[in-house]
Write a structure and sequence with these properties.
CATH superfamily: EF-hand
Order of helices and strands: HEHHHEHEE
CATH topology: Recoverin, domain 1
Strand order of the largest sheet: 1-2
Helix content: 55-70%
Number of strands: 4
Structural class: mainly alpha
CATH class: Mainly Alpha
Shape: elongated
Number of domains: 1
Strand content: 5-15%
CATH architecture: Orthogonal Bundle
Largest sheet: 2 strands, antiparallel
Number of helices: 5
Amino acid sequence: MVNSSLDQATQDKEALKAWESARRAKQIDHLKAMFLTLDEDGSGELTMDEINNAPEETQQQLKEIVATDDLRELFDMLDYDGGGTIGVEEFCDGILKATTRSTGILELGRPESQRTWVRWGEMDG
């Protein structure tokens, strides 16, 4: 009986790992698509001007994902090397590190008592 329980726990851990890996891949795909929308000139790098010139809907979605109204602060955080541009990997990794939780849920910028939770797959309808 103990061995059966241990086997089940191992299987559960493996299933959770596979689910986490699939969830992360989906999140990265979503962020890459957002990056391409923001990258006006197709250079493979974002500038603050490109973020400022992005469609309002895209800007709003980005603000909600990272729970901030200050896109300049977000840009500065993502541009950790201070080069004035953000590559696709910097963008995706930075946003994932800033927003993901172990449950796979992102928190939108609201006071603790009014927080709204959204799963990545539900973000774009």
